[in-house]
Design brief:
The complex is a heterotetramer of chains A (575), B (434), C (334) and D (300).
Chain A lengths: L60 E6 L14 H10 L4 E3 L7 E3 L2 E6 L5 E6 L13 H12 L12 H7 L8 E8 L2 E6 L6 H4 L10 H6 L26 E7 L3 E6 L14 E6 L3 H10 L4 E2 L7 H6 L3 E4 L6 E7 L9 H10 L2 H8 L4 E3 L21 H11 L7 E8 L9 H15 L2 E8 H10 L5 E7 L5 H10 L1 E2 L2 E2 L8 H12 L3 H18 L3 E6 L3 E4 L2 E2 L15 E2 L2
Helix pairs in contact in A: 8-10, 14-15
Chain B lengths: L26 E12 L2 E13 L4 E5 L6 H9 L7 E10 L2 E2 L5 H7 L4 E4 L3 H4 L6 H12 L4 H14 L5 H4 L9 H12 L6 E5 L7 H18 L2 E6 L2 H7 L2 E6 L2 E7 H6 L4 H9 L39 H5 L5 E2 L16 E2 L7 H6 L28 H7 L12 H12 L13
Chain D lengths: L1 H5 L12 H15 L1 H23 L31 H37 L1 H16 L2 H12 L3 H28 L2 H8 L4 H37 L12 H10 L9 H24 L7
Helix pairs in contact in D: 2-11, 3-4, 3-11, 4-5, 4-7, 4-9, 5-7, 6-7, 7-9, 8-9, 9-10, 9-11, 10-11
Classes of the chains: A alpha+beta (575), B alpha/beta (434), C mainly alpha (334), D mainly alpha (300).
Chain lengths: 575, 434, 334, 300
Amino acid sequence: MTRIRSGAGLAIAAILFAACSGSTATPAPASQAPASAAAPSGAAPSTAPSAAAGTPKDGGSLVVAIPGDISSTDSAFIQDSNSSTVSNQVIEGLVATKPGTTGEIVPALAKSWTVSPDGLTYTFTLQDGVKFHDGTDFNADAVCYNYNRWNNFTGALASPDYSYYYAAVFGGYGKDSNLASCTATSPTEVAIVLKHPYSSFLLSQTITSFGINSPTALKALDADNPDPTKSGYNTGAKGAMVGTGPFMFKEYTANDHITVVKNPNYWNKAGVAHLDTVIFKPISDQTATLNALQSGDIQLAMNLNPTDLSTVQADTKLQAIDRGESCNLFHLGMNETHKPFDNEKIREAVAYAINKQALIDTFYGGQAKAAITWMPAGGLYAKDEALPEYNVDKAKALIAESGVPADQLTFDFWYPSNVSRPYMPDPKGIFQAISSDLEAVGFTPNPQTKPWKEGYLKEEATGKYPMWLIGWTCDWAGPDNFLDTAFFNYQGGKPSPEFAYTNDALNKTMKDAEAATDDATAKTLWEKAQDMIRADMPTVPIVNSTPPAAAAAFVKGFVGSGNLTEILNSVWLDQ
Amino acid sequence: MTTTTPPPAPAPTAAGAAGGVASVPLLSVRDLVVRFRTQDGTIYAVNGIDFDLAEGETLGIVGESGCGKSVTNLAIMRLLPKPAGRIERGRILLDGQDLVVLSESEIRAIRGRDVAMIFQDPMTSLNPVLTIEEQMVETIRAHRTTSKEEARARAIELLEMVGIPKPETRLKAFPHQFSGGMRQRVMIAMALALDPRLLIADEPTTALDVTIQAQILEILARLATESGTALILITHDLGVVAGMTKRINVMYAGFVVESATTPELFALPSHPYTIGLLHSIPRLDSDGDEDLIPIEGRPPDQRVEPVGCPFAPRCAWRIDDCWSDNPGLAAIDGRAAVVMTGPAATHRIACFNPPTHDEALAGRPLREGFRPAPPPGTLPEDTGFEGLGSEEALEALEPQGAEHSPLLPRDEALLDAGRDRGQYPGDADRDSHR
Amino acid sequence: MIKYIVRRLLGAIPVLFGLSIILFAFIHLLPGDPAATILGQHARPELVDAMRHRLGLDLPLWQQYLNYVGDLLHGDLGRSFVNNRSVVDDFFVRFPGTVELTLAALAFAVGLGIPMGRWAARKPQSFSDGFITVVSLVGVSIPIFVLGLSLQYVFAVQLHILPASGRIDPRLQVPYTTNFLLIDTLLAGRPDAFVDSLRHLVLPAIALGSIPLAIITRITRASVLDVTHEDYVRTARAKGLTEKRVDGRHIMRNAWLPVVTVIGLQVGGLLAGAVITETVFAWNGVGKWVVEAIEAHDYFVIQSSILIFALIFLLVNLVVDIGYAFLNPRIRYS
Amino acid sequence: MATKAATPATVRVPVESRASRGLWRDALVRLRRNRPALVGLACIAIFVFVAFFAPWLAQYDPNKGGLGKTFEPPSAAHWAGLDKLGRDELTRVMYGARISLVVGVVSVTVGLTIGGLVGAIAGGVGGRIDTILMRITDVFLAIPGILLAIGIVAWLGQGLVQIMIAVAVANAPIFARILRGSLLSLREAEFVTAARSVGASRTRLLLRHMLPNALTALIVAATLALATAIIDVAGLGFLGLGPPDPRTAEWGTMLTDSTEALRRAPWLIFAPGIAIVISAIGFNLLGDGLRESLDPRLKR
């Protein structure tokens, strides 16, 4: 859910047959109390499964540290992980990913669905008797009210500033949109019709931006005001964020806290929250976060510096929490328009020069695995590409082979400041380590930096940087979200300037894969795509990380997810 | 004024034998030694002085800046800068009570009530942030249990006495709203608020315009006489004491070098330093063609323990003994019984080789072939001491000598030095005052 | 006196005017197009143009400046590029936190600094004087964030005596009405919450107040020492006043003057220090706001918050000068 | 901040007109007797010595480490321990002295030049120019120093040079104020009147008579500013605006890094922390000592 504004629109074609094979799916609801859902097997044995044995107790308040303030309380506008962490507690969509997984679709407000054979019509059967937090009924009209609202956004609301994900998934608004219609065929049945088949549709509908809000509340707080800053629904006024989730929005004080309280009438009786109150508190400094955790100011920290993992583990009053399978990739960007990275041998040499295991030990506290391809190792169709392992001699040999003279092995190497990402907890430290590795084989990187939010992301996207640190956390788990959308997509027949990786065959293979109509073809094509990328080594995949969370020892029942969109209804306090 | 003799108890060290006992003087200072311990070493400020003061008597203490006159009087008030300044030895008897040994609260009861003081600079001696009323009332109420209204009435009365117009309204004013002369009047009024028995005025007119000086002195004299308060007037200006006081002590480098009644001193100045002082100032009654003779050289470095006569290096009459021994203060007429106070007080000087009357008038030795004794250890022929032209004399012409500059009184410098001990050198913003 | 205040207020106008020009110039000198910054790199050109138009960036510079000043005078400080919230609204949420923190730090610095300075001045060059001098020297030499994190570590993490961050335990759920939590908790009739928010103030106030504490200690010591040797203090003693009275009425009344001036100067330092302190202690205040704005190149927020900072600084100095005038009759009556 | 506090009070009037030499000679004598100032001087001497001889004093390469040796605690071989990248912390502190020295000296010198020029023109010329220049100075003084510095780094981009400029610009208005203040008070001083009465030109008056006397306050302020400069640079580092090459052994950056690792390796905070505190104390003590030594009023 952590979006990086680097790709243009999302060009997602039909994939992911596993989730939408045209049949009625009836797995357990998403927000079910996962008392039995044992913590996913973590990467490191050191992390304690928090959903430990014991009978959940009701009551109590939990203070959760998030790395920054929320930016919106209107789920349609939410693009950042801080806001979605909060929104996910309150607003639910038609479908969700199963807690503890990143790609397994489970029913949420829709208890089942069917897909027409042409892949255009999705018919959702809704849960019965669900009420919004404001007491109004959740029904098919409410669903369509939301879909139509999004589709009818104009002006500022239709800008990437706000409803980015709607445009990204549906390709635009109104007539530009892939949404043909939303029809309430009965109070509990909705038919959503697309203009073109889009097999990632269901998976995409799991993200925060497609949560269903109370139409009454939206209208009451003027959610569609052409100036979103005047919409109380967007700015956290009282009465904003009215959904159907296990928690209800109570109050928001900018940069201070956001409070949600238990929804005692939650439609899914098994998923009624144990906690009375959850308070989200933005703390940006990671040391300060750990201090707050240890001093008892907060009980759950979503952003633990992996370096501090050992401190947390050593503290009997604390626990480290595993977030499950990784859904990200950290890689070393190289731009082929800059020398010496136009040379394939040089890129290969860089891949051999980097000591990934040292990086994992030093900066990730062991909470990462060396990447095997250009997407998470556990991702759909991920293929182990036998990527180069740390080998200084091999790197030097490749440089020699490349024929690039030593004085041309100089380049600007960029890293972002003022940031820590789940896949890149310490850019500055990682930069130094990689720099040293590169120097060891004969490169001369010239250090450069820009703040993450302003400058860095923009400049790297334009291809200004010869070499830089970059990565991707999945919006949803699928090869398209990484290989195409995030990395090597073509725009207007040309490769994205970010990597300037020209490979028309690859582009065609990916498009074919996205249009594939059966699993086997898709698998073959996506694996072929990965092989093609491996052959050119446009970037050097480094790790898939499993960023840990930390909590007070008495916090039980937390189920981590690799896409970091955990719902806290299962959490209870053992005290 | 009755003739008094030295107090019975202490045997005066320098004044010779005591006469008969008539009455206890108001103030009796005996063998007073004051030193300052500073970072630069010990400063020998007052080196064993004796004097008495009778009830209602006026005494002038005269000397160059730095001679110890202010220090003496601060010692009487026990107001020496702490912790540098200390009374090392001696007694200060007020009505027979030794002020030196009094506790802090006992001396506090005496300050302001029995002994009051007027300071040199009225610009800085009044607290700038308090009204005149506040400052006067607090003085009165510090010693008397009166209501604020009574104290205020007394303050108005006092201001009237010192000639401040519209005292009721002026009471509400702050010091900076007064002129220098007016402020000194306020100081006088404040000092007299409790009818003290002794008033010490430390250069009360030095900082004032010449035209104001006379007025202030007049007020001071009148009020002291009217109230019967004894007065010690400290000044570097012989002209001031001439008309104001009955007796004069001349001080030099922490010693009293000459003590006499005022008429006697002017008629028969007998110590070379006194003579020097008289010759270095223009006199209104002089013939006009008389040359001013500056005193050559500088006062001694008071960081050095004094040996011999402190004036010897500058003295034209010095003899060999002057370098090694300090002549004690003794009656000119050695056989006379020493009278310490009153109009019949004995004329005493501290000199081995007193100038004659003629020499005093001329301002230089007139004896045939007399040459000032050279410093010990130097060959006689080397010391062609001719006055001007000697190294010391040249130095005396340097502007920084400034012995007579009222702007840079040495006493202040001395007190400054004492204050340095109180300053931690690593300290910021010492310059914030002034 | 009123004349004096009016003159001082008028004197602040050209400074604010100059400041507005500098800030305006600063924003326009910054590399990059604010419109493009808002919309992102790949925004369609027509969207960027529309945004430029909405922001008035297509107008000539002088007109932009006039609009800017006009908005300022109407109390419109623009909107955040990042979250589109009104800068003024955000300011009123953030500002009380900074005021509470700054006042607490100032109270700590003054409340401890003045007695310490007086104590040191009492016996110059004694052990206690040397000790205080060394402490104050170290105080001005430790970066705030080092002190802040260390205080957190010792008092919150190790000793568990005080909370590590934030303004209040959010679990207490006190409604924010004024955003001054010390007031809000009382308004809500919650003494427990009041105590809690007070406890939250302690560590950040100490971290922020350490430099002013050192400076106030030093200036108090120096000032007391200076005044101690003033003639009027000697006069006061000569009048037979008790030491307590000499000290309180004569020495301190005068020694206050430079101290008050320095306290006024510290406010600028405190506001600057709040920038870092608020970051360390997750304190929701103007300082943290500015840092976030600068990181995000949130132009209007930077522009406005610096302007507000400067305005506060000028106002505080005015208040200090007026206070100084009240304490010092030489100014009051001239 | 210490410098700001000192500004209003540092205006004083020297007594002698042939000030420069006598004043400085006397000051030196007084300085030699000022024990705290000597301690300060010793701190600075150590600081400068280490800066100059870092390559000989240090046993290791400041940039060579090994990821395997991350956060080794202090030992006989590595007195201050190893940092996150396995580099010897003490070595880096020694090399860091060079950067801090350069940053401090350059930024203060630049600030002094700008501020001195403005102050000299304002105080020397007076009149409308004075008013205008001082208004501009007021504007800059009204912005808290660190914010000004942050803004400048945000504007000019990250880099040691930019940091130096930022600190210089933050200091310059203070210097301008001080110099102007001293010059104004000197204009009425007797020796200046005397020089004016014998027909000294305005320039000569300013350069020969007034400036040398007015410089004393400026020098004190500059010394104190050196202490603040080192701390300010550390603060910029904490806010992520330090030098762009994170391998730069700069104290502020090292301190920031050590606070990030405060929980894993608390000892790392000591070496750079103590280095900053000692150098800041050194400059503070020397500044105070100079202030006293250069004050002719305190002549003994």
